[in-house]
Amino acid sequence: MPLRVVQAGAGAMGRAWLAAVAADPAVELAGVVDLDLDAARAAAPGVPVGTDVVTVAERTGAEAVIDVTVPAAHHPVTAAALAAGLPVLGEKPAADTVARALSLAAASEVAGKLFMVSQSRRWNPRLARLRETAAGLGTLAFAATDFFRAPRFGGFRERMAQPLLVDMAIHAFDAARYLLAADPVEVSCRTWNPAWSWYDGDACAAATFEMTGGARYVYHGSWCAPGADTSWNGTWRITGEHGTASWDGDTDPPGPPPAPGPEGIAAALDAFARALRTGVAPMGEIHENVLSLAMVEAAVTSSDRGRPVLIDDVLRDAHRRALTDERDPAVRATLAAWPDVRTHLRR
Hints:
Blueprint (H helix, E strand, L loop, with lengths): L2 E6 L3 H12 L3 E7 L3 H7 L5 E2 L2 H8 L3 E4 L3 H13 L4 E4 L6 H14 L3 E4 L6 H11 L4 E9 L14 H18 L3 E9 L11 E8 L4 E7 L12 E6 L2 E5 L16 H15 L7 H20 L3 E2 H15 L3 H8 L4 H5 L2
Parallel strand pairs: 1-2, 1-4, 2-3, 4-5, 5-6, 7-10
Antiparallel strand pairs: 7-11, 8-9, 8-13, 9-10, 11-12
């Protein structure tokens, strides 16, 4: 039997997810939730709609939730679904702050239900091929991403304080963790906004991360760089003791071609459904994913303060804020029982 899901969010990204659901025989759309009921009806004609994800799930007998709401809504929507016993597949970021992401990790533990974050670039088979190549380079010393494009989205992205770092760079940061098989230790970051930018916040960034094992990861990017666009995946270079691997972000890296199969959000959806059938934790499980969001928050903090920032300081501060803000007693008690945040995220 297909997995019956309720999707929260019927905007542009929501429509992309609805197409992925429609194309996956292992998943069946039970309902759509959006504060704009007309948008929900237009996105999925003939499907039950509503404004509350738990109510629609109960009414339709849905077994899981796909959260494609705006980042500020990720925490309340996902927390409500988990509390109702519904596993969740959420669009990145897990939440709009690391503190709220930690709260959701604890809520997942309390509910005993999967919360998986869809870092869609993790499911690019060409990225997996690059990782295999990098693994053959011996000890890795350096990885870099260049990302330069000039999209005009309109809407909330153009009003964000740090649109490039918060909405886009998390893809590259998460991919860097995957490629280097390492986690962030410290970051030094600067952001700025050119005079011609149509974004309210800083649309350009340069960040250098120290990673566990000693490698450095460097990110250079802009969302207001007209001309000579890079791939949406960025361009990559990885250097180790036995050589260098590079990737233009689009074409196949050297080596055997990727096996056919779903990619991007379709692959994330497939992995979520399989994880619920098998009980095997997928890539993007909330505990594994938090450090990618911590890289973003640490980079923003470094730019704001004008100095390097330790990732562990960001995690500790987020943990304190999560304990202060959490209203659910069971979730708060679970957070309080964590002996050390980074260690717990590796559970």
